[in-house]
C-alpha cells in the first residue's frame, strides 16, 4: 500500500530529525550510525544527521554498550536503525529488520534482548539479518526511539484497517440478506401475477389479496415493511406470501381458469 510506504518513509525522517539533548546520546547515536556516518550514508537525511552529530567531534569507537545508560542505548539503536534498518508495513504484518555483517548480528540480538526487544537473526545473501516480527515490539522500539507522531499514525492505520474489515463483513452480510430478500420478492410477485392472470386472485380471502397488492406495489420491501404497509402482522404476511406461492404452484399459468 502506498500509504504505508509513505508512513515508513515519514517514520525514518522523524527518527533522523530527532535531536538528542545530551552529548552522551549524540555520541551513542553517532556510534550506532557506524559506517553510514563515514561517507556511505544511505540517504541525505542520514548524511545530514551524521554531520550534525559529528559537530560534537564524537568518536565512533567511544561507545561502550555495557556501561551505557538506557538513554544512550536507545540513541545508539536509533542510529543503528537509520543506518541499517528497514521497516515494512503490510496488511499481513509489521516487520523491522537490521542488515549488518554476520559477525555483528549475535551481539545486536543480545543487546536488543537486554532492552526487552527480543529478535532473531539469520544469514541472507552473506549478510546477517536481525528481525523483529511482532507488531508490539516494533511499535515499542519506534516509540522509544522518538518516532511518536509516526507511531501514532501507524497505530491509527491499524485501527482503520480493522474497522474496514468489520465494515466489509457487515456489508457482505447485508448483501447476502438483500439478495435473499430480492429473490423471494421476485418469486412472490411472479406467483401473484400468475394468480391474477388465471383469475383466481380475486376469489382469495381478503388478507391474501391485501398482501398480494402490497407486495406488488412494493417489490423491494422487507417482510417487516410489508407488515407496516398492510397493517397485518409480520408472521401473517409471511404465511400469506407462502400461501400465494403454493397456490400459484398448484395451478401453473396455462392450465386453464378454475
Ligand atoms: Zn545518553
Quick take:
This protein is of the alpha+beta class and 258 residues long. The chain has helices at 2-16, 23-33, 44-54, 70-84, 105-114, 135-145, 148-197, 206-217, 223-230, 234-250, and strands spanning 85-90, 93-100, 120-124, 127-132.
Q: Could you explain the architecture of this structure?
A:
By secondary structure, the protein is an alpha+beta fold. The protein has two domains: 2-146, Homing endonucleases (Endonuclease I-creI), CATH 3.10.28; 170-250, no CATH class. The protein has helices at residues 2-16, 23-33, 44-54, 70-84, 105-114, 135-145, 148-197, 206-217, 223-230, 234-250; strands spanning 85-90, 93-100, 120-124, 127-132. Strands 1-2-4-3 form a four-stranded antiparallel beta sheet. Strand 3 and strand 4 (127-132) form a beta hairpin. Helix 2 runs parallel beside helix 4, helix 6 crosses helix 7 and helix 9 packs across helix 10. The longest helix has 50 residues, at 148-197. It is rod-shaped. Zinc ion (ZN) binds next to helix 2 and helix 4. Zinc ion is lined by residues 22, 24-25, 28, 69, 71-72, 75.
Helix content: 55-70%
Task: Identify every distinct bound molecule in the structure, by name, code or SMILES.
Answer: zinc ion
In the CATH scheme, what's the topology name of the largest domain? Endonuclease I-creI
Largest sheet: 4 strands, antiparallel
Shape: rod-shaped
For the record, the CATH architecture of the largest domain stands as: Roll
Give the spatial strand order of the biggest sheet: 1-2-4-3
Mean pLDDT: 81
The CATH class of the largest domain turns out to be: Alpha Beta
Kindly provide the radius of gyration, computed on alpha-carbon positions and rounded to a whole number of angstroms. Answer: 35 Å
How large a portion of the residues is in β-strands, by DSSP E?
Answer: 5-15%
